[in-house]
UniProtKB/TrEMBL annotation:
PANTHER family: ESTERASE, PUTATIVE (AFU_ORTHOLOGUE AFUA_1G05850)-RELATED (PTHR31299:SF0). Pfam families: Erythro_esteras (PF05139). It comes from the Bacteria. Coiled coil: none annotated. It comes from Hymenobacter properus. InterPro entries: Emycin_Estase, Hydrolase/PRTase-associated, UCP036794_erythomycin. Signal peptide: none annotated. This is Erythromycin esterase family protein. GO terms for biological process: response to antibiotic.
Length: 431
């Protein structure tokens, strides 16, 4: 009879105790997902994030989302009163496709909890919620222009110049990238000049309140997004791994800036896809010279200060679109292909959910090999899954721990067929 894998039961939030012990004093905990549309990934990350905040004093959550939208949520959850109405109303700020990724009832429940938690904390200890991504070029420029106009200072001219440079492209960054691909004139100098102007001003100012300091930080961050988004969209047009690296390097730069904002004792929780948080050096991404935040965090912060948790499932359902910009729909996730981590774990665990730790499974010969690891994006076609949805991975090296849910379910977007849908219980397993 085969020796069973060393695993830990995963049935309720109390079963996260061994994971909290393993995380120890890590400064950043990276929480992955194998899709952007799975209920269980969001609820288990929420359960763990709550415990990290309550029991280990984590300072903020940073997610694979746009800075302007996430900062609106951040400002709202730090208010003394819920002037934004309901969490569902607040999350309507995520109006760029794929809206369901952060505009869902699972995130609404987290948002309400964060606001309630923050009400019991002094201003300097209130937990933040920030976006790490680089897509929001136009929205970020609008935010900087609005901030500069409010301040009425020297940044206004630089903001208007940068805004005006992109204006002919109808707020479409990809149209901008196509237009400048074969000419020497672009908006590189304008966005970099804007960022330098904001940084010079920040170096000479003092702020009366934490809110003022954070607003200034947000303006500078929006300028940084514009700088890196300009680079990202041009690199994307050229193809290859360069645009991916621009994006994940921006994520790491943003995380570092957030640490600087919150101080030397601050701790971060990161929510992003497994392809971002699982160390790229232990996947086929390495052959393409691609990096990710999981690798960069280990290299820059020290492996002992970083704890990464991957997520995966064998079968179920997911929210995704059949093509970019398409209406979302609930799709069936077929059983994992035969030569994959998900199939191996399903067979070894007999269909049970489990928590695995890399230091316990690394010596198991059954796991000391590279296997396909399922990765579902916002665009998904289940019938073609075996041809492009598996990333060859050394699982025990890619993550520090792995959460395996044998059967998962689609998450719950805020709007279903035009009507708001209220969920009776997001945590049937206890939370």
């Amino acid at each position: 009879m085969a020796t069973p894998l060393p695993t830990h039961r995963l049935g309720s939030a109390t079963d996260l105790e061994p994971l909290l012990a393993a995380i120890g004093e890590a400064r950043v905990v990276l929480l992955g997902e194998a899709s952007h549309g799975t209920h269980e990934y969001y609820t288990w990350r929420t359960a763990l994030s709550k415990r990290l905040i309550r029991e280990k004093g984590f300072s903020f959550i940073a997610v694979e989302g746009d800075w302007p939208d996430c900062f609106e949520v951040n400002a709202a959850i730090k208010q003394d009163a819920a002037t934004y109405g309901s969490a569902a109303q607040l999350l309507q700020t995520f109006n760029r496709w794929p809206t369901w990724m952060w505009g869902n009832w699972e995130v609404a429940a987290l948002t309400e909890w964060l606001h309630g938690h923050n009400l019991k904390q002094p201003a300097e200890r209130r937990v933040g919620f920030y976006g790490l991504d680089v897509y929001s070029l136009w929205e970020s420029l609008q935010e900087v222009l609005h901030y500069a106009e409010q301040q009425g200072d020297g940044a206004m001219a630089a903001a208007r110049q940068a805004f005006g440079c992109f204006e002919p492209y109808s707020s479409d960054p990809q149209e901008y990238a196509r237009a400048v691909a074969f000419v020497s004139e672009d908006c590189h100098d304008e966005v970099n000049g804007l960022l330098r102007t904001l940084r010079r001003q920040a170096a000479t100012r003092t702020y009366a309140t934490l809110s003022e300091r954070e607003q200034a930080f947000a303006a500078e961050q929006n300028a940084l997004v514009a700088v890196n988004a300009e680079r990202y969209y041009k690199a994307m047009l050229r193809g290859g791994g360069a645009s991916w690296n621009v994006r994940d390097e921006h994520m790491m730069e943003t995380l570092t800036r957030l640490f600087n904002l919150h101080g030397p004792d601050s701790k971060a929780i990161v929510w992003a896809h497994n392809t971002h948080i699982g160390d790229a050096r232990y996947t086929d991404m390495r052959r393409e010279d691609m990096v990710n935040i999981g690798q960069l965090a280990r290299e820059q912060l020290g492996r002992e200060n970083v704890f990464s948790v991957g997520f995966g499932s064998y079968q179920g359902s997911v929210i995704a679109g059949k093509e970019w910009g398409a209406l979302w729909e609930s799709m069936t996730v077929p059983t994992a292909t035969r030569n994959s981590w998900e199939a191996l774990l399903h067979n070894q665990l007999g269909g049970e959910n489990a928590l695995l730790f890399s230091n316990e499974i690394r010596t198991d010969a059954r796991l000391a090999k590279s296997l396909g690891h399922r990765a579902i994006g916002v665009v998904y076609r289940p019938q073609f899954e075996q041809f492009g949805n598996y990333v060859p991975s050394l699982l025990p090296d890619r993550y520090d721990a792995f959460v395996f849910i044998d059967r998962t379910h689609a998450l719950h977007p805020l709007v279903i067929k035009g009507n708001e849908h209220t969920l009776p219980d997001l945590y049937p397993w206890g939370e």
